[in-house]
Amino acid sequence: MSFDFSMLVASRLHDLKNDLHILIDLENQLKASDISLSSEQKKLFNKMLKQSLHIRHEFSQFLAVFKLDKQYRPSFQEHWITDFFELLQLQFTDLFPALSFKINAPEDLSWFFDDQLMKVAIHNLVINALKAGATEIQLNGEEAADWLVVHILDNGPGLPAEKLQLQTYESTGGRLNHGLGFLLVKQVCETHENHGKQGKIELSNRPEPDHGAHIRLYLP
Fold first, then answer.
1. How far apart are CA 217 and CA 31, in angstroms?
2. 132: which residues sit within 8 A by CB, 6+ positions away?
3. What secondary structure letter does DSSP report for 74?
């Protein structure tokens, strides 16, 4: 009987996920404690939190890719968009207190999608925006012509012209030109199918006088 390497990877991913939950719980306990920290200690603690977020982000990306590679079928469940956005807003403003994170969606808007994969996709885009220098994020949701459209807007430097074409993020010779990034988000969207339509992503920069990127995720 051949060794099933994928089962080993799945098992280790499960263990790592549990370890990350323990780490998150410890971080929350520290933040909720009455321990008095000096200015320098607070800076170190915030750096630790950001590094922890980076590790969780990378882990989530890898887990999503692993699931998609194993022909993972999304769990289509109905979610209220404002509730889904509010959870993301709480997570990011908790980790980045100086970040302006605004959300906007109709109160009665709901949609069927895999919330875990969509969290990974949106986290990916927001973290990329923050790394590029953005300090403001706007997350909007709307229904348009039988699509759920999620808009992610930032006030960063915007996307370079050569990166505005999705084919830039296709794999070449088995390697990704720009890491997991947009290719992962593209795959997450395309995994969502309904009535013969497949999800998609569109990239652009915001028109003047605004600055920054405008990314649209379409779910059928």
1. 34
2. 154, 156, 157, 213
3. P
pLDDT tens across 127-165, in order?
A: 889 888 899 999 999 999 999 999 999 999 998 877 776
Instruction: State the Cα–Cα distance between residues 13 and 60, nearest whole angstrom.
Output: 10
202 and 216 Cβ atoms separated by less than 8 Å: yes
Instruction: Tell me which of 16 and 130 has the higher pLDDT.
Output: 130
Q: CA 122, CA 185: separation in Å to the nearest integer?
A: 8
Identify the residue whose tokens are 């403001």.
136
* Residue 82 and residue 63 in one domain: no
Supply the pLDDT for residue 106.
Answer: 97
What are residue 176's phi and psi, to 5 degrees? Answer: -95, 135
**Tokens linked to 140:** 């909007």
Residue with tokens 């969290």, as numbered in its chain:
119
**Percent of all residues in the chain with a pLDDT value above 90, rounded to a whole number:** 35
Enclosing domain of residue 117 = 77-219
For residue 172, the cross-strand partners are: 175
One domain, residues 37 and 56: yes
81 in the same domain as 64: no
How many domains does the structure of the chain reveal?
Answer: 2
Name which of 203, 77, 67 is nearest 128 in CA terms. 203
Sequence-distant (6+) residues with CB within 8 A of 56 are 20, 24
